[in-house]
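Objective 1.3, modelling of assemblies. Example input:
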Amino acid sequence: MTDRYRSFTNSRTGRRVASRLGLPRPAELRRYQPGEPLLPGPALLTATGNGQLSEILARVLDAAGVELHGVDDGRRRLSAIVVDATGVMGVADLAEVHATVGPALKRLQPSGRLLLFGRPVTDAGSTGEAAARQALDGLMRSVAKEVRAGATANLVVVDDGAEGSLESTVRFFLSGRSAFVSGQSVQVAARPTSTNDSPDWVRPLDGRVAVVTGAAQGIGAAIARVLARDGARVVCADLPAQGERLAEVANEVGGTGLQVDITASSAPDRIAGHATGRHGGLDVLVHNAGITRDRLLANMDAATWSSVLSVNLEAQLRINDGLLRSGALGAGSRIISASSTSGIAGNRGQANYAASKAGIIGMVRAAAPELASRSATINAVAPGFIETDMTASMPLAVREVARRLNSLRQGGQPVDVAETIAWLAQESSAGVNGQVVRVCGQNLVGA
Amino acid sequence: MASTVRRAAVVGGNRIPFARANGPYRHASNQDMLTTALDGLVARFGLQGEQLGEVAAGAVLKHSRDYNLTRECVLGSRLSPSTPAYDVQQACGTGLETTILVANKIALGQIDAGIAGGVDTTSDAPIAVSEDLRRVLLDLNAARDVKSRLAALRKLRPGQLKPDAPDNAEPRTGLSMGEHAAITALEWQISREAQDELTVASHRNLAAAYDRGFFDDLVTPYLGLTRDQNLRPDSDAAALSRLKPVFGKRLGDGTTATMTAGNSTPLSDGASTVLIASDEWAAQRRLPVLAHVVDAETAAVDYVHGEEGMLMAPAYAVPRLLARNGLALLDFDFYEVHEAFASTVLATLAAWEDADFCKRRLDLDSPLGPIDRSRLNVAGSSLAAGHPFAATGGRIVATLAHLLAERGSGRGLISICAAGGQGVVAILEAG
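Predicted structure (tokens):
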């Protein structure tokens, strides 16, 4: 649905009115288009102290055709500020980050990027080092709230030895794929085995077979489109009752439609049978299907509670279990599950939904080590306010407030969730495992 | 020219749920419904942009503008526009006849894959001008000068303006399909109870099949309808017994009428498609082979002069098909006998069990039946699903192929009666 306020404040008159009245002016976000350069303008790449990533980051950015500057001349407009802060050893080193990032931020272009790289707090050599590492997180989150015009700030926490696993993540955060992802911290682990070392960045999912549940409409349909655009053969799955729209989506993306109730005990077999039978395998499983049945907990009957838990959580657990046990999801496979900011922050009237979505986070974290041992990954995305039929049916005032409650002052698009999932689905994202990535424009709710 | 034949494989099917006349598909045309059914099949099997050998389909009730209906549907679908198509019309036998046509071309190696199907709407029916008015208008069109135009126009009468809507009366007898069936029901003494019992079984079987997800890979919802509209899962004999007879009321002494709106199929709208291919074509695309088309037969009877009931032709087609394939009627795991009317199914079964009929009419020394009734229409049939004439064959072929694939082995018999005293029958065998 169109955001009329955003359209207005981006018109000539609207811009003047908004600036006179001091009203927020949501930007038109830069979104990914195949064939476009990674960044529209130059990037500043700096390192603090004894940063260990400068070389690899320079190589990645150079390969992506980014105009790179190691020194800030104080005049140049920047599309991205990339800071290797892996050398931060103590609180004093943070001043260096401040000294480089601060002035450069003023020249950050619309939809610009601040991308920080740090090390995990958990393996810091001292308490002081841990404190300084964690401090980067607070700095990043604050900058994400300070930058304007669609710019974002994010932090990549790089495990020791994960330097070689960074490329897909660097590309994601700098590109328009991460338009609605801001204020996030993502950890990248050393990838267990070397996968495809020279991926095709235009069709990073070429030859992969993906199953998307809930694909008949909204975010699920957007996921199917983006995965297909990136080269995947997509099995579009949804309830039999959704078959008419499902067939349209499947035909649009050149995939196949699978009418299946994910809560049925036969669902794992039917999904595996279709993917392997028709397409020769199953590489990417996207658990997108979900329902809401909102009620205050005190007024909620057992059926309302259990229907949401059954569809949103139990079905995923059963399907993952079945597909992993049967080997249908093998080495190199990717599971991506839809959580929600409600699962992180809770939401009035959504105890069942929030429980299911928080459960997803638990599932992803608990299953990650097992998946890693199979050279596979499991991650969750947690969408915030996304413009869908569901949010379009909210009362006007509630919708307007909900839209502006994030640092980008607007709702995200289904494609923003889809792009994040497509990044996690890539073979070269092997180092990203057990993560929960919010696609919420840094929503105030749920931190 | 191919010197050998190969077996054609049924890969799968797709249909839209069948609706009752003037129901949710009231404003859907044959072209809308068949295109949607084709696109659902394309989605199920990933056939976007695929050039197939042919698409054969048809409709019984057809607008004159739809002369190239199937080809137009192909052009409107996600199939490659270079897929040829043609229309077939053999009344209620259309859907099965198109299956036979496509399967035969595949068997002969003329094509590798094709789609058979059918569609019908009794809601969006063609309405024509009366025959008298049509003649006046044709004369008017042919007139070259004012005088002859006026002469043509002088023949106009108000009564000619009454539109001519299609009805289901047989042109040569003036009797409706139901009245014909009622004559046969009376002749074979088919009881009301037996007809209602068969009707209940059809509804219960169809409902159970939906409930266990059997149709998840066979039906794609359309215009808000997710299951066949006519289906009454809680149908029971007591409720059916309260319905008043609608056919055969003028036969006998008037107390013998047994056919009601419950144990007869309603006028329906819907479309069905079946994907048929060679084994190699299916394997190349990693598509399943649910069943193979073994053989088929068509028969016709002289119902005009009263020698046989109008819907009894399958009783003749089946023994000929069995003999050619060296099979007995009992050699089947599934029997799909189209339920135009419950009495039609029961009369056909009764004929096969009747030694006299089998001797005199079929020239057989012993009766063909009785069959194991638990193998009859196990996933429901037309009484519950509805019967959009040309779409029924495709529904039955796809359903039987799925039943055989589920079972993993075995053989099924399809028997479909059609207007004009015709019957189309076929044998499918598991993959």
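The two ends of chain A are 26 Å apart (CA to CA).
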